[in-house]
């Protein structure tokens, strides 16, 4: 027996006895793994025995538990040291290449454009007035030195080039309407108190069970059959519409004049309801006294909910405050909530208070979601219990188990959401009372922008209308195949220690990460199609300019992102008047269109 084994037996075993061979091997493994002496290991064992109780004996099981405890203690110490090192390093702002025109000796008194002096930066960061909020959350780990909570705490921009360090509470144009559709419909006053019962009923028009398919198991043969079936369906549509027989479709390789089926850019004129349609028909006379029913209120917001440089949910808290003040009937929230493309999420650089969960060292991403997302939603529903909340995750959500598009839903009990919240699939077609709403969190508008091939005549039309018409005419939430490659999108720049790119001490500290992309599973692309009816409202969140337009009698809505990379974003607010039927329409005893787009007002609002 070697000297190490003898010393271990002398320290750990009972008198006139030796340790079992398996226990001895575990202890020797600990010595080699941590490069410590048997005496130091014995001190750690005594400390562990005191913590576990006087009846603790050294067996194979306790030896393995002891080994696990040492490893967890070491990891906690390393995390604390890394956080302290980042906090010390960020106390001094790194130099910037673009600061060569700065006032080096202070002789210009801050007159150099684009280069604020130190005093002005300090005033912006520390002297801003702060707004009280009922939806507080702690500062992100990237700004751990700031103990205050958001949204009162003005977070620094962490050295993002070109950004201005401004408190979220001091954001300009808060609550300002930037675009309105059907402005002749007045905004109703918020109700004094919440209704006793929810004013809407939800019904899914999508086969939700089919979204629970097994991911990463796509077969090329199945994908090919799905695409062939889609071509055959469009062939049948064209034959029925144009009365064309089968023989009219020939071989495109031959130089013959034949009907050709394929993607084409729409050249239809823009159907902007706020201009052309209303200019020709005049304003609608609105008389709510006849019905006595308050208009339906709907708010729509989409992620990301944090800026690109820090994991700060101040914009989400502000949205919850706005929802509490206006008391809408429906709140639609699109992902991503915890964006997997965010540098802080990539490196796990976030934290929640120790009192938020029993064991912070074993916290998961769902615990982060519960604290930053579920907690404010629960506070909202406690004060506005009749609200209906529709939540749709994104393929970029870090808590999503289903990573392919079409994407399955998550059980709300797993993230402690209230009963007023409903998590739906991505995409989904859902009925809210009499209206049909199609929702997807995939940025399909940006994909159409990158992949479309248009003629000169089509370029003269409004691009947003052109892309919306492509979705409607092809009856799909994702008509682009193949989807845009991941390499086409801008890469995500992040530092190895979890901070946003630009804070690293050198080029070696920075990494480039590919974005997630569409994650389309071609075998199940039929789940993205519109089966029987076109939606009245098509919600397609995108990073492009937010808009609300009527295209082919469908209200296409892009609420924008609630938070941009360097500042607050936008959300959408809808006011839906009750449908009315005239006596003549009743006498005809026929199907009456409810003309949702004519009785709906949409506002794009700065958060």
TrEMBL record:
InterPro entries: DNA_pol_a/d/e_bsu (IPR007185), DNA_pol_alpha_bsu (IPR016722)
Nucleus in keyword set: yes
Chain intervals for the UniProt region annotation (Disordered): 76-97, 115-159
Repressor in keyword set: no
GO BP field: DNA replication initiation
Compositional bias of kind Polar residues: 145-156
GO cellular component: alpha DNA polymerase:primase complex
Highest taxon listed in the record's lineage: Eukaryota
Organism, as annotated: Diplodia seriata
Function: Accessory subunit of the DNA polymerase alpha complex (also known as the alpha DNA polymerase-primase complex) which plays an essential role in the initiation of DNA synthesis.
Assigned keywords, A-Z: DNA replication, Nucleus
Pfam families: DNA_pol_E_B (PF04042)
The protein, known as: DNA polymerase alpha subunit B
Compartments in which it is found: Nucleus
Protein family: Belongs to the DNA polymerase alpha subunit B family.
GO MF, one example: DNA binding
Domain called DNA polymerase alpha/delta/epsilon subunit B: residue spans: 298-549
Biased composition (Basic and acidic residues): 76-91
């Amino acid at each position: 027996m070697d000297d190490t084994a003898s010393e271990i037996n002398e320290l750990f075993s009972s008198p006139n006895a030796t340790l079992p061979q398996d226990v001895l091997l575990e202890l020797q493994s600990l010595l080699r793994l941590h490069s410590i002496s048997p005496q130091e290991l014995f001190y750690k064992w005594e400390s562990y025995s005191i913590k576990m109780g006087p009846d603790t004996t050294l067996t194979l099981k306790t030896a393995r538990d002891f080994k696990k405890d040492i490893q967890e203690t070491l990891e906690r110490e390393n995390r604390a040291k890394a956080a302290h090192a980042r906090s010390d390093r960020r106390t001094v702002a790194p130099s910037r290449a673009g600061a060569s025109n700065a006032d080096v000796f202070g002789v210009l008194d801050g007159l150099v454009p684009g280069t604020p002096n130190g005093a002005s930066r300090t005033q912006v960061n520390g002297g801003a007035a702060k707004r009280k909020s009922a939806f507080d959350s702690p500062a992100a780990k990237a700004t751990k030195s700031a103990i205050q909570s958001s949204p009162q705490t003005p977070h620094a921009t962490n050295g993002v080039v070109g950004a201005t360090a401004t408190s979220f509470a001091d954001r300009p144009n808060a609550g300002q309407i930037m675009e309105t559709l059907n402005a002749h419909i007045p905004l109703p006053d918020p109700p004094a108190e919440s209704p006793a019962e929810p004013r809407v009923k939800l019904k899914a028009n999508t086969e939700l069970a089919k979204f629970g398919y097994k991911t990463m198991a796509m077969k090329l043969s199945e994908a090919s059959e799905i695409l062939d079936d889609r071509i055959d369906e469009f062939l049948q549509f064209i034959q029925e519409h144009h009365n064309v027989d089968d023989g009219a479709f020939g071989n495109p390789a031959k130089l013959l004049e034949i009907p050709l089926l394929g993607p084409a850019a729409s050249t239809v004129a823009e159907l902007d309801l706020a201009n052309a349609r209303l200019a020709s028909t005049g304003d609608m006379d609105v008389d709510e006294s006849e019905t006595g029913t308050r208009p339906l209120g709907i708010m729509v917001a989409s992620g990301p909910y944090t800026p690109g440089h820090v994991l700060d949910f101040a914009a989400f808290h502000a949205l919850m405050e706005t929802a509490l003040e206006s008391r809408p009937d429906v709140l639609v929230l699109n992902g991503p909530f915890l964006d997997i493309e965010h540098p802080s999420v990539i490196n796990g650089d976030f934290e929640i208070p120790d009192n938020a969960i029993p064991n912070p060292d074993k916290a998961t991403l769902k615990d982060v979601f519960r604290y930053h997302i579920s907690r404010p939603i629960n506070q909202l529903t406690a004060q506005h219990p009749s609200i209906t909340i529709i939540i749709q995750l994104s393929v970029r959500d870090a808590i999503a188990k289903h990573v392919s598009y079409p994407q399955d839903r998550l059980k709300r009990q797993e993230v402690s959401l209230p009963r007023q919240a409903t998590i739906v699939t991505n995409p989904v077609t859902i009925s809210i009372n009499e209206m049909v709403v199609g929702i997807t969190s995939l940025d399909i508008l940006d994909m159409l922008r990158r992949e479309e091939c248009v003629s000169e005549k089509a370029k003269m039309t409004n691009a947003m209308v052109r892309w919306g018409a492509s979705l409607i005419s092809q009856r799909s939430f994702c008509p682009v195949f193949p989807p845009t490659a991941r390499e086409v999108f801008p890469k995500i720049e992040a530092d190895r220690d979890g901070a946003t790119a630009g804070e690293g001490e050198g080029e070696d500290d920075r990494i480039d990460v590919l974005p997630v992309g569409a994650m389309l599973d071609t075998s199940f692309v039929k789940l993205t199609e519109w089966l029987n009816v076109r939606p009245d409202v098509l919600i397609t969140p995108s990073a492009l300019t937010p808009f609300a337009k009527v295209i082919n009698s469908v209200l296409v809505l892009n609420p924008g992102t609630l938070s941009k990379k360097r500042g607050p974003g936008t959300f959408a607010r809808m006011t839906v008047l009750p449908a009315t039927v005239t006596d003549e329409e009743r006498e005809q005893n026929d199907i009456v269109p409810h003309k949702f787009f004519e009785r709906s007002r949409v506002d794009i609002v700065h958060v």
